[in-house]
Amino acid sequence: MSDVTSQRDRGKYQGIVGGVWGLSTIIGPLAGGLFSDHLSWRWAFFINLPIGTITVIIVILFLHLPRSSGSLIEKLKRIDYLGSILTFTGVICLLLPTNWGGNTYDWNSPQIICLYIASFILLSALAYVEIKVASEPIIPAQIFKVRTAVATFIFNLLFGMSFFSMIYYTPLYFQVIKGVSATESGLLILPLLLGVVIFSAVAGMITSYTGRVRELIWVGGVISTIGSILVSIYFNANSTTGQQVGFLLITGCGFGLVAQTTLLSLQSCVDVEYLASVTAMYNFSRVIGGIFGVAILGAIFTNTLNAGLATYYSQLPPGSFDLVLAKSDVLYLWRLNDTNIRQNIMQIYVNALQAAYRINIPILGGSVLISLFIK
């Protein structure tokens, strides 16, 4: 986008991109729910094959960018293979123990400790390679000398942690606590996603006409934090439809205001030669944030759920404890004959979900503080 639009008009087009991205987050949960209810969860992956093929064809036919000089061999030689490998392995070694800790393995187990040590070594090696070895590093050290760039990467990481974990755990709330199907849970999360779509486009238009970005980021961060607080408090077994719609919409509006404006701020603070690198880092930080957010909230949710359900192990029918614990049948609770046990276990689920939701409050609050360093 930065190659084909002016800096002044970029906000408008980035807003459109943000709206399309938000629209895809609406279609995704709905399609996933339909696949889960009527076909198989595997179709959530199979569907990417035809969609990806169509996308590649469209890009080949309609995206015409200037070709860089040099042969294919020369271009391949310029790739930072070592940096790419170290990035991939270092992040994997960091993600696995975060996801496994307290669930698959104890936090003080050799597997968890060794993976964290390996991650530290690999990421330290990555920093050395990018600074001292690579001629064209995938992560240029120069961009970390720009305060706005560093602040934006951290902000985007925190945004990804909160946004993707919210998308992941809110449908679970509707299915387990409200007893709806996967398809219905996809519909019930629409207020959050509509807020993202609408206010991402609105933020793009405001930026295009005023040239102001920082204020939108601040306001968006504050609104999403308020929404997250409301969700963590009021999303329980007794919450009303109005509360669910209103609080998700508030959170989505905040997310929408910052979804693309942070990228505009980032691209305006670096030289043209670094635009591709900072844009790649921007997207990478958001995705990695999402992975970490889901993993961290998942660890908190699972550990809280495990501790609460242990009390009812002997009171559940044979084999049903594993069903409840593994979330392999989220509607199983609604088929329990003992109303008292069902209500108590649902409250344990509520406690676990609220414990996970509460983690988003300091995450988003931290993003507001970080946004103060963005120009």
UniProtKB/TrEMBL annotation:
Sorted alphabetically, which Pfam families does this protein's record hold?
A: MFS_1
**Any one GO CC term of the record:** endomembrane system
Q: Which GO terms describe its molecular function?
A: transmembrane transporter activity
Query: Which chain regions cross the lipid bilayer?
Result: 12-31, 43-66, 78-97, 109-129, 150-169, 189-209, 216-235, 247-266, 287-313, 355-374
Report keywords, A-Z.
Membrane, Transmembrane, Transmembrane helix, Transport
Lipid bilayer topology: Multi-pass membrane protein
Where does this polypeptide localize?
Answer: Endomembrane system
Q: Which InterPro entries match?
A: MFS, MFS_dom, MFS_trans_sf
Q: Does the keyword S-adenosyl-L-methionine apply?
A: no
Looking up Gene3D superfamilies in the UniProt record yields:
MFS general substrate transporter like domains, Multidrug resistance protein D
Q: Which PROSITE patterns match?
A: MFS
Do the record's keywords include Protease?
no
* Domain Major facilitator superfamily (MFS) profile span(s) in chain numbering: 1-375
- This one is known as 9361_t:CDS:1
